[in-house]
Amino acid sequence: MVADRKNHDVLDNYRYILVKRSQASRDTPRRNTGLVGSNRVGFRAVFKGVAVGLTVDPVNRRFVSKPFSSLSRFLDKSDQTMAPDTTTTFDNNTSTDLVKQASISSCAYVTFLAGDGDYWKGVVGLAKGLRKAESKYPLVVAILPDVPEHHRKILVSQGCILREIEPVHPPENQTQFAMAYYVINYSKLRIWEFVEYSKMIYLDGDIQVFDNVDHLFDMPDGYFYAVMDCFCEKTWSSSPQYKIGYCQQCPDKVKWPAEMGPKPPLYFNAGMFVYEPNLSTYHDLLKTLKVTPPTLFAEQDFLNMFFRDVYKPIPSDYNLVMAMLWRHPENINLDEVKVVHYCAAGSKPWRYTGKEENMDREDIKILVQKWWDIYNDESLDYKNPVVASSGSELQPILEALYEAGVGHYFTAPSAA
Description:
The chain has two domains: 5-69 and 72-104 and 384-411, no CATH class; 107-229 and 267-378, Spore Coat Polysaccharide Biosynthesis Protein SpsA, Chain A, CATH 3.90.550. Helix 1 crosses helix 11 and helix 2 (120-132) crosses helix 9 (362-375). It is built from eleven helices and 15 strands. With 416 residues, it is α/β, with parallel strands linked by helices. Helix content is 22%, strand content 17%. Belongs to the glycosyltransferase 8 family. Galactosyltransferase subfamily.
């Protein structure tokens, strides 16, 4: 949508500090979807000292010419620095407000959404859960072009930062070895491209955060952190682990037979992990994928293979896979669980009927109700502090940005 002259005049009456999202690493053409992505440039602007994230069509607005580089994490106020030479200032002589450059969070949570199904409800629940847990960091949603606009608007209204990505496909004619509904998850590899953040925590859309886990960002750099998976469910029936009854959650219960060779390396569930975006890693991931035939669990198997040498397990409290409740109850204390993964068949709260296997358990019912308590809590709905604090003074610029083709705006750096 092209703005009229009136709206451009409103834009020109303000001074902005813009930070361009790097487009240089995109290896596939972007499709014009009319909201976020395509040829549009994501940046943050600062209005009266408040950082505001924007997406603007470069055809209609000027933008910076240098790509945005990875920022160093800042631990306190004395370390709040910006990457050098990545900003451009738009000035107008009629502007009287001094705009101060605000620090941009170098950590964030990220999730993934595809299609026009009901998974957006899980993402909304996740956004509200992070707010209830008083997280300091935003939630970025990596969305495919097929996510409809009305779902995008719902996510933006809940304070999410939308980043449109293109699908990632495994080698041609080799997807028959992977579960069909997992194949689209290879697109998650794009999140390594989000180098405006130095560290991120990935969370599947069917995950809920019940306690603050921001401290995971403070773990040493250079490693891939995730929770070990369980091999006891039928989805693992074709694996040697399942066939002999071996599970890494209780390795001494059924020992790995010596005649089968070395014990399998530790294997994580890819529904939650802590990682560091990096363009070199991103390109290595895509390059490796081209020569790696898909396997049963698609991107989860691939990530386990790729990061096996730097993987560090973290406790199950940070990604409680539902099967642990009936397979390894001795390893779980629900009072200490911080993150729950509703990945078992029938456990998605927004689809829950209680009729599937194990879904009539009291602990499952409690966890499903806890999810709904957060989802239905209107006090956890996103309240934009920019609009709340600036009121009518900011409204003209927000309207102008929308008319100019801006997909959304958000405050930084907190999701709370």
